[in-house]
Specification:
CATH architecture: Alpha-Beta Complex
Low-confidence stretches: none
Shape: globular
CATH class: Alpha Beta
Number of domains: 1
Order of helices and strands: EHEEHEHEEEHEEHEEEEEHEEH
CATH topology: Spore Coat Polysaccharide Biosynthesis Protein SpsA, Chain A
Radius of gyration: 20 Å
Oligomer: single chain
Largest sheet: 8 strands, mixed
Structural class: alpha/beta
Strand content: 25-35%
Helix content: 25-40%
């Protein structure tokens, strides 16, 4: 099953990092967050990716090329410019890097990925969030209900500590717990190709009219994921993920070294 990843946005809320590189290239530990996302899919056997490029897409192209060329031994023929790359320790991925426009919105990027995703069920996520969602169970859930679209629904971590009161007395204090109610779109979709028919063009946000129309038609199902999920929209969230990585046991790391 092919995996589409949206990696073309401006990332303006993370401007401290994205002035010089696209958000999917912001590093958590020694690797960009895009690599972490792809490794999660690879752990579950998915190796074919179509990445929607836009803002500073050349940065992602260079990263993908250099990841292979700069790993392991290399022989350079200076007279001809020929470069021979030795055996690589990189994961066995096939990656299409697709230019989808500088200002194209999320729905338009997904539609433009259509030729690379093919006429079959595909997976989709954003290039700025990690999770420990069980992708095998997600796909099985999608196949079980027969609808066009499955969205992973998550409970995000609260931004601030949670207080419970008895009058003016604090009876419970929890530091930044997961919210006890309310679900949000955590991405990590499984979609049928007919979903592309719900997207009218480049100026469409997938999160608005297409998903609203799918829901109205009874074609949108939620896979409820209760465990770890974290996006990286801000510098604070980047620092949270970095701290988790530095702990040596980041909760989204499903693969072994």
């Amino acid at each position: 099953m092919k995996v589409g990843i949206l990696a073309g946005g401006y990332g303006t809320r993370l401007a401290e990092e994205t002035e010089i590189r696209p958000k999917p290239m912001v590093e958590i530990g020694p690797k960009p967050i895009l690599w972490h996302i792809m490794m999660h899919y690879y752990h579950y056997g998915h190796r074919e990716f179509a990445i929607a490029l836009g803002y500073k897409g050349d940065f992602i192209k260079r990263w993908a090329r250099d990841m292979v060329q700069l790993d392991g031994h290399m022989r350079v023929h200076t007279a001809t410019g020929e470069v021979e790359v030795g055996e690589s320790n990189q994961p066995n991925w096939v990656v299409d890097l697709v230019e989808t426009g500088l200002t194209t919105l999320t729905g338009g990027r997904i539609k433009r990925l259509g030729p690379w995703l093919g006429n079959e069920t595909f997976m989709l996520t954003w290039g700025d969030g990690v999770s420990d969602v069980d992708l095998d169970k997600l796909v099985a859930f999608h196949k079980s209900h027969g609808k066009l679209a499955t969205m992973t629904a998550v409970r995000p971590a609260a931004r601030y500590g949670h207080l419970e009161f008895d009058g003016d007395q604090i009876i419970s204090f929890e530091e930044k717990p997961q919210t006890s109610e309310g679900w949000i779109n955590g991405a990590f979709f499984v979609l049928e190709p007919e979903v592309l028919d719900y997207i009218d063009g480049d100026d469409v946000m997938f999160e608005h009219a297409p998903l609203e129309r799918l829901a109205a038609d009874g074609q949108l199902m939620a896979y409820k994921h209760e465990a770890f999920w974290q996006c990286m929209d801000t510098l604070r969230e980047k620092q949270i993920l970095q701290k988790m990585w530095d702990s040596g046991n980041p909760p989204w790391k499903t693969w072994s070294d």
